[in-house]
Write a structure and sequence with these properties.
Layout (H helix, E strand, L loop, with lengths): L4 H12 L4 H8 L4 H10 L33 E11 L2 E11 L32 E2 L8 E2 L12 H7 L4 H6 L1
Antiparallel strand pairs: 1-2, 3-4
Helix pairs in contact: 2-3
The structure holds a DNA duplex (11 and 10 nucleotides).
DNA sequence: CCCTGATTCGC
DNA sequence: GCGAATCAGG
């Protein structure tokens, strides 16, 4: 694979967006993360903020200091709205999620869903969350990609959604 | 062990 | 210029 103008342009774009070298390599295809890093240097693109940082640390949105969680021992349901733009149309998706106590969600302000690494199908590995996000027919479709423990197909968050016992069953217990 | 970027150096 | 090997780090 050679560095066509197109590929270089894509590299620049993704790098500036804070994707890791390996993620960029996976999206470009046909190159290793070393190749990407090497190219980044040759282009003398700005490096990452701190050396040896982990997952797109520079681009990771910093979370506001967490607000105190309401001490509520009953399960409750929360509806939240996610807005995204598709073309000129703003779509709204509503997710109703059953919350139990001490779920590591932030009910805080806007940041409701755990950040995802927005991995492409080809970027998934044995230990990345394979929870699909978005419409498979659309460009922005991706997978969660967060760490999935113990060869689980999902991260801890999505495993709870995937394997959520029915409300009935929970009441029985 | 998993991952990250940085550097070196033979090609 | 390229990128695998290696290094340094979380």
């Amino acid at each position: 694979m050679n560095w066509t103008d197109e590929r270089v342009e894509k590299l620049k774009k993704l790098w500036s967006e804070g994707l890791s070298a390996s993620q960029i390599a996976a999206q470009l295809g046909g190159v290793s993360r070393n190749a990407v890093i090497g190219k980044v240097h040759r282009l003398s693109l700005p490096g990452r903020a701190k050396a040896g940082g982990s997952t797109a640390a520079a681009a990771r949105p910093k979370r506001a200091t967490s607000a105190p969680r309401a001490p509520n021992y009953a399960a409750r349901s929360v509806t939240r709205t996610v807005t995204r733009t598709a073309g000129a149309t703003a779509l709204k998706e509503e997710l109703a999620v059953d919350l139990t106590i001490d779920q590591e969600l932030q009910i805080d302000r806007n940041i409701v869903l755990p950040m995802s690494r927005r991995l492409e199908l080809t970027e998934l590995t044995e230990r990345t969350c394979k929870w699909p996000i978005g419409d498979p027919l659309k460009e922005e479709f991706h997978f969660c990609g967060n760490d999935s423990p113990e060869a689980s197909p999902y991260c801890t968050f999505h495993a709870r959604l995937a394997y959520q016992p029915s409300a009935e069953r929970r009441r029985m217990r």
